[in-house]
Amino acid sequence: MAKQLITVTINNKLTELYVDPRESLADMLRNDLKLTSVKHGCDVGECGACTVVIDGENFDSCIYLAIWADGKSITTVEGLASLEGELADIQQAFVDDGAIQCGFCTPGFIMSTLPLLNVEEDLSREEIKKQVSGNFCRCTGYTNIINAIEHTREKIKNDRDSDK
Amino acid sequence: MVVGKKINRVDAVTKADGTAKYTEDLLDDKCLVAKVLHSTIANGKVLSFDLEEAKKVPGVVKIITSFDVPDIQYPTAGHPWSTEKAHQDVCDRKLLNTRVRFYGDEIAAVIADDEIAADHARDLIKVEYEEYPAIFDMEESVNNPGDVPIHEEKPNNVIVKSNYEVLDYDEAVKEPGLIKVTGVYETQKVQQCHIENASSFAYKEAGKVVVVSATQIPHIVRRVCSQALGCDMGKVRIIKPYLGGGFGNRQDALTEPLNAFLTLQVGGRPVKLMYTREETFFGTRSRHAMKFYITSYVRPNGTFAAREIVAYSDNGAYGSHAHALVANAVNAFRMMYPVGAIKGVAYTVYTNNPTAGAMRAYGIPQIGFALEAHVDDIIAKLPNDDAISFRKKNMMQLGYVDPGTTITCHSTGLSECIDKGREAIGWDEKIEKYKNQTGDVRHGVGMGIFCYKTGVYPIALETSACRMILNQDGSIQLQVGATEIGQGADTVFSQMAAETLSIPFENVHILSQQDTDVTPYDTGAYGSRQTYVTGMAVRKTAESLKNKICDYAAWMLNKDRIDLDLVDNHIVRVGTNDVLISLKEVAMEACYSRTNSNHIAAEETHHCSDNTYSFGVCFADIEVDIPLCQIKVNRIINVHDSGTIINPQTAEGQVHGGMSMGLGYGLLEKMLFDPKTGRMLNSNLLDYKLMTAIDTPDLEVAFVEPKDPSGPYGNKSLGEPPVIPVAPALRNAVYNATGVAIDSIPLNPEKLFQEFTDAGLIK
């Protein structure tokens, strides 16, 4: 099938590439760009392991066609750390809170938390749990993942308050 | 002290930043794609394949059918091989099977240039079958095996029947005044549901077949592949990269033997065999459904006089781990309450369901549910006992030697676990508060206890090797065949090495990859064995390396060896602790010395000949909405005695994960099958109800830490046990809340509706 040219910003870099119109965004990111943090767990939008952020919103990239990404800005977990390799707050919180075990769900899970981190209003634990219920983790029982999200939100809030 | 300290996982950063490479992430761009054709009948045989249309699909490279594979039946279980024929695993499957035994059996494979071609061609293969009546019920399989046995080697469909008796049961039940309690308890088939599907790729290099695979047991998979292919073990190399969860499913050879065979059919070109979620559900392994008939005779003073169990285990279509699981279950029936006369009978049965295998805690969640439910049924009939007093009177005590296995209770903190959990959940107050409830929403508390072995001795071989190499900077390379599968093994092995060597934790380097051509031998991740068995290999190797380092330092310093020790990363003088030289200086000299270059390394084997029990308890505080048939878990706490905790963070993580799996087992999860065809109905993560974040209450964990004298650092099993006591605690809490004793799981709305209706709570 004839490939189509798309222009897409990936982890802050403007990229042009030809994609198969049948190809999922997950496959494009994995196969064409070697962003292998984007995991296949089900390929039908059930498990959340392939979650990426597209224009500020989290999506299951396995059920999002690559051609739909044309003109959009995509972030994967590879795009979170600083150039020097310093982890983003949410990544560091996952490390420090014991929110990582086998690690297979971790990149997608971290991407699902991103839209929550800067929400200024208070979020209860239940609200946070609801927001990340599209991501399965079979190892951790979620408790430490929710802790990591709460700790990161606190840190961001404190940084925000000290800036004021 | 490094052991006992909360230390972040050695692999956490590389998993958080997305650079950890799992099997599929390592694929060669030019890899061919294999797709398996699964049978669409549950029992019968393939008469013929029509490949004509399939072969025409552009991109198809080769199609292999069950008529093309070697006539070799091989075993798949992740057990150490027994050199005695009588104890060898069941060899009952071929790489592809003409004799079809479940809906989804592997009958052919397409190799193609890409996924689309492979899928399309597979769908065009036409199959002609001869069909036999299928048997999906385990008791029916024993009672009416039919004219065509599922495996001709087992004409009555029973893989193994075993029995035991402790003391004289028939004599014991004659004691006057005994209270008889009977019950029938059933547990369902569930799946491990690791988030990384079953996946591998294979190629030929330097005359041998290499399989890269997400396996818990690389050295065992090498042996299984060699058996399946009929080649020498040295001709097979298994590489295990980072792995996305196992939970026992990958304690089995899954895609690897067929994948190894397929690459050899295309000249050793790389071929990937990655199962979809659906295939992983029905085409790999699952937890055995079991059914238990239990009869107890109890004295009015709340002690067991006699107890009997008859257990059935649905093994599905192929042997896999076979009888080991239900044997484990009926043994635990004896060990949990080793009081009075006890007898057990266990059947492991072939059916036309997908194959069951190992899953976290290996038969014990099944018996844990049945026995702890039964115990609460008994307590309801006793005048002077409650859930805690009865258990404390009858549970295992320090020094117990199991008559069936000789496994000895070297340490127990079970009583302290119960006390701690009782206090934390507010048990006594809640038992009072929840008395005599009426209305639609009722509260209840429940508990369950367990004991669990550590590793597989003496049932099977326990052996592990470790290698340490001193780097020039005084750091070490730590190499083990034991596998990191998410549980934190690499981190705790590194802590153990740092502890015994007395060097900084950061100076221990470990690769989260096993390669059977490089890595020392270890049987792998199962049986909660690695901290105990491999842990001792790590300790021995560290002691050996330390000795060699001190030997070299003695030569360097011209001192007597006996006066030197390695403490805090320096060679010191024994007694005065005077620092003589840093380890780094010793390591540099040892490598680059022009007079005495010595590449210091050590390798030791630990052939383990001991075992010990870990213990624990779960307390749950729930509310039951009777008309809605919903259970809400308000609080849940697990308290564990796993001896010394090596790393509180990874230990807590293991308990969280087990509790979550236990909640799913008790409340939601069940593999469903079409009763006519045997096709799995919910082989996806929407219809199979896995716990999500919103379903999961905050999980509470506590430990008591009696040092176990047999463990390398006072530690004993931890990885599997947390799943065990959750489902019975939930069931007993429902009983406490509603007075309805439910004898099967999951306690999902469908089941609650039936049970509450039968009990007259819903009219």
Task: Explain what the structure shows.
The complex is a heterodimer of chains A (164) and B (763). With 164 residues, chain A is of the alpha+beta class. Chain A folds into 2 domains: 4-79, Roll (Ubiquitin-like (UB roll)), CATH 3.10.20.30; 89-163, [2Fe-2S]-binding domain (DNA polymerase, domain 1). Chain A has helices at 25-32, 89-96, 106-117, 125-131, 143-163, and strands at 4-10, 13-19, 51-54, 57-60, 73-75. Chain A has a 5-stranded mixed beta sheet, covered by helices on one side. The longest helix of chain A has 21 residues, at 143-163. The relative contact order of chain A is 0.15. With 763 residues, chain B is of the alpha+beta class. Chain B has 3 domains: 13-132 and 198-274, Aldehyde Oxidoreductase, domain 3; 289-457 and 610-758, Aldehyde oxidase/xanthine dehydrogenase, molybdopterin binding domain (Aldehyde Oxidoreductase, domain 4, 2-Layer Sandwich), CATH 3.30.365; 463-607, Aldehyde Oxidoreductase, domain 4 (2-Layer Sandwich), CATH 3.30.365.10. In chain B, the strands form 6 sheets. Chain B has an 8-stranded mixed beta sheet with strand order 3-5-1-12-9-10-11-20, sandwiched between helices. In chain B, strands 7-15-14-13-8 form a 5-stranded mixed beta sheet. Chain B is globular. At the A-B interface, helix 2, helix 3, helix 4 and helix 5 of A face helix 1 and helix 17 of B.
